[in-house]
Automatic annotation (TrEMBL):
Pfam families linked: Mutator
Organism: Magallana gigas (Pacific oyster)
The protein, known as: Mutator-like transposase domain-containing protein
InterPro entries: Mutator_transp_dom
Domain Mutator-like transposase stretches: 2-108, 112-216
Lineage, top ranks: Eukaryota, Metazoa, Spiralia, Lophotrochozoa, Mollusca
Amino acid sequence: MRVVDKGLTLDMINDLYISHARCKCQLADFEIKSETKWGLGWSWTFGCKRCNFISKPYKLYHEVPSEHCGRKAAEMNLGIQTGLYQTPLGNDQARLILACTGIPPPARGITSRHKMGQGASQVIGVACEDETDQHNVMSYHMVIKLCWVGAWLRGEGYDVSCRNGHVGCTANKNPAEPLSERETGYKIGENLAKHDLLVKYVTTDGDATSCAGLETALQNTLSPL
């Protein structure tokens, strides 16, 4: 099974018959000559079994407008990424669900949730309770590598470094240090432990290490029950 846009599919069918009408062949008998997968989206090229007609490739997904060169992103690929951010599901679970419905799952790179890495400059981890309909925020921890004061001082020729290497430094992590989900989870656990809150169950994506960090913080901070 393929996920295709209904409107673009109808436009494709109309264009196919109009293009084929220019041939001497009187009765079209189309078949898919090739298909190209782009995440969840598909592009099809058709041919006629009765003549040498070959169509142009038809993209059956909407693209996201972009001023950059190269291949444009498909709206549905960005949509599944956005959906994953709002759920505890990980990439592998999402791909498994699609495969079970008969839809060829996208490659792992298409469903990437952009895990923490050297390229990020700010990260926030949030812990919400799931016992009420309000889903109140119980704790959070923010990691910031940015410091506009330090950047301005260095631009003026001062030899200063962040983090906290000068007055007014806003960074709480060295720009050269990698970001860590486990460390973020640990800080959240410390904040919860300060209020004598014991967390028994944590829901997160399957490949995250923040849960292990939170568990370690609670074990190290709270007295054994």
